[in-house]
Amino acid sequence: MEEYGKHVLSIDGRKILKLEGVQHVGSFDEQEITLDTNMGFLKLKGEGMHITHLNLDEGSLVVEGFINALEYVEGRSAKGGKARGKGFINRILK
């Protein structure tokens, strides 16, 4: 199994989400937050969501609000477009 570093996600009462392993926050508003983690692209959906803590050096994030859904999406990146792949074409075009 591949080692990705620490990745911990906890939700307290659907009102506080704590995440370790954050690499980049793409976009955020009260209904949706998109971010890259060390385990892939993550999309959070909810109501009245606010980022109350963010430390990219430590990879930590705290979101408060009402969490409706979270989804890990393969092949995407919060930085826009496809995730940093290691396919043959991507290696050639570096």
Automatic annotation (TrEMBL):
InterPro entries: Spore_YabP, Spore_YabP/YqfC, YabP_sf
Classification via Pfam families: YabP (PF07873)
GO biological process terms, semicolon-separated: sporulation resulting in formation of a cellular spore
Name recorded for this polypeptide: Sporulation protein YabP
Organism: Desulforamulus aeronauticus DSM 10349
Organism placement in taxonomy: Bacteria, Bacillati, Bacillota, Clostridia, Eubacteriales
